[in-house]
Amino acid sequence: MLVNEMELKDLVGRRFVTDSREVKPGDVFVAIKGNRVDGHDFAHQAVQAGAFAVIVEKDVSLPNQVVVPNTVEFLGMYASKILEKFRPKIVGITGSNGKTTTKEIVSAVLSAEIPTFKNEGNLNSEIGLPLSIINSYRGEPVVVLEMAQRNVGDIEYLCKLFPPDIGVLLNVGSAHVGVVGNVENIFKGKWQIVENSKQALVNFDDKRMRCEKCKYFGTKGGNYVLKERRFDGKNTLLTFETHEGEFYYALPGFWPKAMAISVLVAFAIADMLDILFNPVKLLTFKPLKGRFNIYRLGKAFIIDDTYNASYESFRHGIEEIKEHFPRPAYAVVGAMKELGEYSTYYHQLLSKLLEEIDGVIVYDKEPESKDIAPNNLLFRSEKEDEIVKFIKDKILVSEFSGTLYFKASRAVELDKIVDKLLEGLNI
Predict the structure, then answer these.
(1) Where do the Mur ligase central domain residues begin and end (predicted)?
(2) CA 369 from centre of chain
(3) Domain total of the chain
């Protein structure tokens, strides 16, 4: 219900926000009831800050309120109507790991040839994705959307609002298994992007991913194959294979396997959309913060992979360290979150995995890390300063020429330790 004869057209072109502290004059404030905070309690504060309108689910006695049955669903439908007006080609991307990086790489490739919209940062939920579209979409003919899942049904909900012409499923692992319930449910939820897309692009290397409308990327077979990845000390050399033959690319710097796969996905999407694959923007592409950022310290390497963590992403990281970086190799690690009843199991698996390198330092900020107990444990502490001191005194000594790898879930805030070390070393 719209009150005071305010029309939806009056909201067009205005910035939508869900945090009353961010309201600026002319904005539209959307009151969302969360688990801890109810946005309706801050509607008056938003108006005092200059909100043009407040979207609410109940009467809050404001002259510029817009009352709707559900504010989250209103956001989604409003954003959906915006896309319907322009009818762009929509690429939806999901997976347990690598969604944001893949979205950035795909949009970089496509935008070199055609105006392309991407959702901002990791605004990939039923709230963040519509907000990104409402606030930033300007009619681009191609839209690349990262879609996140916390519960089964989330992907289907987003796909109904923003139906993908191509739905991409990168991988399915253990991330958020404690929320979803089990790995089978994770797969069921992620597979909804295939079920709700006109075409699908999925990972051939995962035997569970098979369907009639699917095209495949992978390393073991499929329509688009990463046949070779080689680092020559300066560039990463990639060889892609399709039914049309082999394609060769050289990208500056070291590109981990996961990022090389993201480039392959971009190659496949460009082909499926009949757009020239133009990698020019990849020549200056920088990994997002906390996604395998590499820093040189003389002959040594510091690798910041702290953005997030699952057992699978840990395994990929350790494989990269073993194959491409100098020994001794040490890992500074913390807990993997949202694993629920599977937490002990996956942290024990991680302990075995970490024994493949030369030593481990555990930052015990979160309780789950107590189950990280590899035989090559060097030091552990719940205090940030003690971890920093140990690394400086025992690892990063003048003659160190190995590798120091940092990884944990975001809640651990291991990135703060990395930042302290880099600041102190003037890197």
Answers:
(1) 93-223
(2) 23
(3) 3
